[in-house]
Amino acid sequence: MQQGLRPERLPLVVNEFGVNRPITRRGWLGLLPGFVSAAVVSQKSPPLPQAGEFVRFADPTTEVPVVRLTTPAYNDVLPAPDRGFVSLKPRMLYCSSDRAGGRMAPFQIDLRTGAIRQVAEAGALDTNSLSLDAQGRFLFFIDSGRLCQVAVNSKHDVKKPETLAEDVSAYALGSSRNELFALRAGRLLQLLDRGENLLAEDAITPCVMRPGGRGCLFGRKSSADEHEFWYASVAGSGARPVLLASGRVGNPFWSADGSSLLFLRDVPVNNVFVAELREVNPEERIERCVAATSQFAAFSPNRNDSVFVGASKSKAQPNIVLLLRNPHREMTLCEHHASNPASARPVFSPDSRRVYFQSDREGKSAIYSVNVEQLVEPT
User: Fold this and answer.
1) Which of 360, 88, 376 lies closest to 368 in space, CA to CA?
2) DSSP assigned state of 120
3) Under 8 Å CB-to-CB from 283, ≥6 apart: which residues?
4) What does the pLDDT look like over 122-181, one tens digit per residue?
5) In angstroms, how far is CA 198 from the centroid of its own chain?
6) Where is 30: in which H helix or E strand?
7) For the CA atoms of 277, 281, 282, 286, what is the dihedral angle to 10 degrees?
8) Are 189 and 196 in contact (CB under 8 A)?
9) Which helix (H) or strand (E) holds 153?
10) How many C-beta atoms lie closer than 10 Å to residue 304's C-beta?
11) Which listed residue, of 11, 116, 164, 229, carries a Cα 20 to 30 Å from 241's Cα?
12) Max Cα–Cα distance, the chain, nearest Å
């Protein structure tokens, strides 16, 4: 069995860039043994909750059921893909929405009932910044340059958040209070109970903590279209940051065990740029190609890095795509039709049973969900 995907996986065709091109669900089902395809087709979706704004429809390309979780009457925006914003117990999704008087504020979507509730006040919310702590008890976010936290296990009225730090432009959160990093006025800091530890100067976003709190990724801009990824370790005093990747790079994620940094790189092929999924180990600093992609503008790994979900920037095929790490094969999940493909931000749920993404395909930004239990092994 191929790790990550269910055993129904099939060989796919190759496009003009030598990249695995996904077949549609209809074609995929046609190649499956009869009893398997019948089981997939005949499986009934559970009824949608009566509360909330959930709307189910069949994707026009693949016929996969897609659920729109929020109405396009408002702008509902997912956090940055590397943030933890979905909890399983209880099943909640946290996002930003302008449904409270036109100003963005943190909201909670109950994925069982569909109920949507504002959880905190905000003045100038950074919609990228929402993140749950490891226990799912507090929601962190940046509002007007303040790093804030608010308890989310309460059903009381909208609360005023607690301020943890001022003048913060980005942060990275771990499993303990000492695993907290922040960007402040171009400086990467480790925020400790006893004070601050300066790790790097001239730092910009992204700010992504390495699992285990061993250090933090940060960025530097080299030109209009090119960036640099740097890594600052907290091991030992006086350790200098190291350059991990530079050029047309983006969308960084740490692997589940923290052994390598995963990211997208645009590589020139026949006078066009093709997006490849790359990885680099901070200690070795040797960059390797994980897989070519069907022009991913954004991606996210599942919990064990065996499957990736990406948003294609192809104008002809603006799709959400599943990519199996080994072997390198893709399958189209559904269309996204986001005006900016990178903003689709597809992510797996923590158990890899669902994929969430956003799109302004109907005017304003709405959030969508696709059940992938029949396609991807749970994590």
Assistant:
1) 360
2) B
3) none
4) 999 999 999 999 888 999 999 999 999 999 976 667 888 999 999 999 999 987 766 899
5) 28
6) helix 25-31
7) -90
8) yes
9) none
10) 15
11) 164
12) 64
